[in-house]
Structures are given as C-alpha cells and as structure tokens.
Design goal:
16 helices; alpha+beta; 420 residues; 5-stranded antiparallel β-sheet; 4-stranded mixed β-sheet; 4 domains
Length: 420
C-alpha cells in the first residue's frame, strides 16, 4: 500500500504536467501577435522569448504533442498499476477497465478542458508564466522532435501531401469581422467602422466606378474669354476646370481659379499662359493606383480616356478621398441634418448618399443595385447625372431630384403615389 502512495503522487504529477502542456499550447496559440510585437518593442521582459516560441509554431506544437503523449502514456501505465493493486481480487481485466475510465475522466477535466479554458481567458498571463520551463523542454527535446518531424515529412512526401506552414495570412473578410465585432462591443464607433470598410473597398474600386461621366463634365474652350472663364467659375464654384481645344476629346490641360487672381490687365488675358498640365488615366485603373500617381505628381484632376484617346470622364483627388471619408461638404454645399426626413406617409426627403439597403429597410421597398447609394443607383439607372427637378421612376417609386452639387446627387424627394 505504501508503494501505491508514491504511485498516486507520481500520477498527480503527471496529470499536472499534462495540464501544463495543454495550457501552454493553448495560451501560446491564442496570443495576440500584434500585442506581443508591441511588448517586444517596449522591451518587456520575456516578450522576445515568447515571440521566438510563437514564430516557430510547428516545432513548438510538435514538442508539446510529444510531451503530452509521453505524459499521458506514463499516466495510463501508473494508473493501471495502482488499480490492479487496489482491485486485484476482481481480476486484471476489471482493474484495467476501471483505470481507463477513471483516468480518461481525470485527464479530460484536469489535463485538457480546465487548463485550456483558463489558457484562453488568461493567454497572456499564462504565456509569461510558462514560457521559461517550456523553452527548456524545447531545447531538451529538440533532437527527438527533429527526428519525428523528418519522419512525418517523409510520410507526407510519400502520400503526395505538400506541407502547409502553420502561419496563416489574415484575410480581408477576417479583418472586417474583427472591425464589425469591435464596433458591436463599443470599441469602435459606427463612423469608424464605415471608414475602415471604405478603406477595404478603396482598393477594389476602378476609375469607372467613381469618375464624373463625360456628359456631366464642366469644361472650357481654349478660345474662352476671361469673362467667360470667370463666369463658369462663379456659376459652378469649382477650383479647377478642364480646357479643351476644338472638342472635348482633346483636353489640353486645366485652369486653376487661383491663377486668375494674379491677372493685372484682363484685356491682355491669354488663356495659354494659365493652362496647366492635366493627368490622364483609363477607366479600368484601380483608384488606389491613380491616387498614388496623382499624389506623387501633385495633380488634383485626371482626365479619363478610352482606348482611342477620347474623353469619357474625369476624376478629382477629392472624389477619391471621398470614397474613404464620405462626402466632403464645403461652404457651398447644402447641409442635410438627416438622411431621411418624413414629409408625410407617402413622401420623404432623402440624401443621395443614403445606402440602398437602409432605404429598402426603412421604406419597405426592394431596390437592387451594384451601387451602394441611392444617388449612384439613379445615375446608373438613367446613364447620366440628372437635372434638378427631374423625375425618375423605379418599381412604382418616384424620385424627384432636389439638389445636384459637385456632379453628384445631393438630395431627392421620394413619392409612393402618382401625384408629383
């Protein structure tokens, strides 16, 4: 019976070891890698060692797996001996069966479920508490793990299975899920979430998705007089306007309103002196690439051309930035306090940037479009920028254009009957 006492102590030690390896595995694999990197940069003691361990997950997991198996096999053997000594009168088969049942339950509770659950909750604390003994184990068992790893790789090679590293690159969808969860938990505001989502979409959009179409471009002829140019700037309130020679397909540059301030004698005005070079691009270029080009060349406007060199639209640096931060309102834009304003049960005032999904949900309609906003949908539907007061009908719903600004639909009136 005295020998059984030592065996029980040894068995408890083995179960604790099993829990140690299970907790270490879960804690290290659950760590916030960005947080650890920051701790390393801050010079926190032990952070560098933890980073080294987690940077080689294959070796770490293999070592923990070997150790856990050795510990559990030893625990099974010791448990069997203990129960045979205790239940020898019932026979070896009964004692072995009872040992297997009891040890399985104990290992599951104290060697797997409990330590792993704690490790998930306290991953960082446990990692700093356990990394020293684990690092020692990694060094001691490195030769054995190396041999096992080579055998495993050889078997995989025979089976034609390519080794995939345990390092996985986080996907865009996973990042979006993190952002969405952070917003739900109150870490991020709704506007922060929208901003981050817009950054993701920014990389996918092409110039054709954001450009101002040819039919809606405001341009100046090279033959325009000073008064005509000033009149256009006063009416449209743009800071830059493209200049063409002969026809709009031959855009030769852009004129900046600031340059007009330095003219002393209007009678001597010659437009050629004030035409600046304009950047050209094509409709299928990623707006991310165009943004970098325009930023590098310090251009605020780009003319979009087709394969034959004809003008099909233009895009400004503000248009590109607005794809991330949303509409940038200046002192000339009308301020709209609410996205949807109820006039009566059959009439609503909405902003052009209102999401189609939001409009569908709030008004109980079903508009489907590749565009996200109602303004973009209306332009897609009629193939051009509508005029103020123009009426567009979609699925028994009528939209009256109330406000056009900066070549975008700013405000609309929605009707649910035929009285417009």
């Amino acid at each position: 019976m005295e020998s059984n006492g030592w065996l029980v102590v040894f068995l408890v030690f083995l179960i604790l070891l099993s829990g140690f390896f299970s907790a270490a595995e879960t804690a290290l694999m659950s760590l916030n890698k960005i947080k650890i990197k920051q701790l390393v940069e801050d010079g926190v003691k032990g952070a560098k060692e933890i980073q080294e361990i987690t940077d080689n997950p294959s070796e770490t997991l293999s070592t923990i797996l070997v150790c856990n198996n050795i510990v559990n096999i030893l625990a099974s053997s010791v448990s069997t001996v203990i129960f045979i000594n205790l239940l020898d009168r019932f026979g070896t088969a009964v004692a072995t069966s009872v040992s297997t049942l009891v040890l399985t339950i104990v290992i599951l509770i104290f060697g797997e479920i409990t330590p792993k659950t704690i490790a998930v909750i306290k991953a960082e604390k446990l990692a700093f508490a356990l990394y020293k003994p684990l690092k020692l184990v990694l060094v001691l068992l490195k030769p054995i793990v190396f041999i096992f790893s080579k055998i495993s790789k050889f078997i995989m090679l025979i089976l034609g299975i390519k080794e995939q590293g345990l390092h996985t690159n986080i996907t865009e969808e996973e990042l979006k899920s993190i952002v969405s969860f952070s917003q739900e938990e109150g870490v991020l505001e709704v506007e922060d979430k929208k901003l981050i989502y817009n950054v993701f979409e920014f990389g996918d959009l092409k110039v054709k998705d954001v450009m101002i179409p040819r039919v809606d471009m405001i341009t100046l002829s090279k033959n325009s007089t000073y008064d005509e140019i000033v009149s256009v700037f006063k009416t449209e309130r743009f800071s830059r306007v493209p200049v063409y020679k002969d026809n709009i397909d031959n855009i030769i540059g852009v004129i900046n309103i600031k340059d007009l301030f330095f003219i002393d004698k209007e009678d001597d005005f010659v437009i050629d002196k004030y035409i600046r070079d304009v950047h050209s691009t094509h409709e299928y270029k990623k707006i991310r690439d165009l943004f970098n080009e325009m930023k590098k060349k310090r251009n605020h406007m780009a003319i979009v051309r087709d394969e034959y060199g004809g003008t099909i639209g233009l895009v400004t640096i503000e248009d590109l930035i607005e794809e991330i931060v949303g509409d940038i309102e200046d002192e000339y834009d009308e301020v709209v306090d609410k996205e949807i304003q109820v006039v009566n049960e059959k009439e609503y005032l909405i902003v052009g940037t209102l999401k189609i999904d939001t409009l569908n949900d709030m008004l109980g309609i079903n508009i489907e479009s590749e565009f996200e906003t109602i303004g973009g949908y209306i332009i897609e539907k009629i193939g051009r920028l509508p005029q103020n007061g123009e009426i567009v009908e979609v699925d028994n719903v009528k939209f009256k254009i109330e406000n056009i600004g900066k070549n975008r639909i700013k405000g609309l009136r929605v009707y649910f009957d035929n009285d417009v």
